[in-house]
Write a structure and sequence with these properties.
By secondary structure, the protein is mainly α. The chain folds into two domains: 228 residues, no CATH class; 151 residues. Helix 12 runs parallel beside helix 15 and helix 15 packs antiparallel against helix 16. 23% of the residues are buried.
């Protein structure tokens, strides 16, 4: 079983690296550098202006840390056929699951360390938590994550976990995390977290000796975990065997009525209808626009807001370019006598509408956060100039390549 795990994890890592190279392309890396720089600068200014005696600060930080510890699920790499071919070796499955548990711990450990360092300045400005206490917070998160892995494994050994029990565990995790933010409760929180983790490990050990492994539940959980990862990759590149969902969205039918489906050029109606009903590109557009709007809300420098606004508009436009080839696999799009120039024109109309709406939203945010000034006016003008330049010049040239 140990050899099987090593073989699968090597293949899994190679596959993930293949997709990660496509996800972290040059454009996305540049956007990340600007976004992280802007967020870091804004966060540093927010920490300086934060009231250290605010009563709501520590409760909010406890919820942030609770979200951080919720990152990452147990990666078993189990396949559908394992329920048949590995069933005779179920007694040796414990070794396989231990290796899977160790492999699944690395990324959550890094994320929890990063999250702890992120909230550390807000804890230190309260002057109620010493610097060494930050390590105790991270250790508590690690113990809670270990207990959650034990709970997940125990569920696959047919343990009775009701919805109310899951909520109880979640509340206990929040109480333990919150206790780490108050020095007089620190030791009790660490002891409580360690006790619960030890209890779950003992329960798991008993279940592995006396209960049968639920192969279908474990395989289904692994398929769901990989499905979420592949859907994320699918936003940047095509993932074989993964298709986006289609929703009716009757409340958007009014927008389609504004577009007349002319026989001379049906592509505009096709692209608008596909964008409104599909979940892949419409979801990507909404997430990027909302994320960009939130970032601009926390930026109080006009030149930084301008740079971020221009970058986000270009990023959204670039990420929506693959939608042009969404219907290439349909034979009728090749048989219908429509020139490519009309198809490009129809797609450009859709992109113009989407990018103008994004520029309009960013303009409102700039006016609200920075006020009415000459710099803000020029920034808004630059946003709309970028939209026009992107749609009129860059887009047709890129689509003809």
């Amino acid at each position: 079983m140990q050899a099987l795990w090593h073989k699968r994890v090597q293949k899994h890592i190679q596959e993930q690296l293949k997709y990660l190279r496509l996800v972290f392309n040059d454009h996305f890396v540049i956007a990340l550098i600007f976004l992280l720089g802007a967020l870091g600068y804004t966060y540093a200014n927010a920490v300086k202006e934060m009231d250290p005696q605010a009563w709501w600060l520590k409760p909010i930080l406890s919820f942030v840390l609770l979200a951080v510890v919720s990152f990452g699920r147990l990666a078993t790499l189990l396949k559908d056929a394992d329920s048949v071919f590995l069933l005779p070796k179920e007694s040796r499955l414990v070794t396989y699951l231990q290796a899977a548990r160790l492999y699944s711990s690395w990324l959550p450990l890094i994320v929890m360390a990063f999250g702890t360092l992120l909230v550390a300045p807000l804890l230190l400005i309260t002057k109620t938590v010493p610097a060494w206490h930050i390590a105790s917070v991270w250790l508590t998160l690690v113990i809670i994550k270990d207990r959650r892995f034990s709970t997940q494994l125990r569920q696959w050994y047919q343990a009775d976990e009701t919805q109310s029990t899951q909520w109880l565990w979640l509340i206990l995790d929040w109480v333990i995390i919150a206790s780490q933010l108050y020095p007089w409760l620190n030791l009790a929180g660490v002891i409580g977290a360690f006790g619960l983790a030890y209890y779950q490990r003992q329960q798991l050990a008993r279940a592995q000796k006396s209960q049968l492994f639920d192969w279908l539940a474990a395989v289904s959980a692994e398929d769901s975990r990989m499905g979420r990862i592949y859907r994320l990759y699918n936003l940047f590149t095509d993932v074989p065997g993964l298709s986006s969902q289609v929703k009716r969205r009757r409340y958007l039918d009014g927008l389609l009525k504004l577009i007349v489906a002319k026989p001379a050029n049906p592509y505009l109606y096709l692209y608008v209808r596909g964008f409104l009903r599909g979940t892949e590109f419409s979801g990507l557009y909404l997430r990027l626009v909302i994320l960009g709007g939130v970032i601009l809300c926390f930026s109080h420098l006009w030149w930084l807001s301008l740079a971020l606004g221009l970058l986000l508009i270009y990023l959204v436009g670039f990420q929506l370019l693959p939608f042009y080839n969404q219907y290439d696999q349909i034979i009728f799009t090749h048989l219908y006598p429509i020139r490519t120039t009309k198809r490009i024109h129809a797609f450009s109309q859709l992109m113009r509408i989407l990018l103008l709406l994004q520029a309009l939203l960013f303009s409102v945010i700039l006016l609200v956060t920075l006020g009415v000034t000459v710099q803000v006016g020029l920034s808004i003008l630059a946003l709309f100039v970028l939209v026009v330049g992107f749609v009129q010049f860059y887009l047709p040239k890129r689509l003809r390549e």
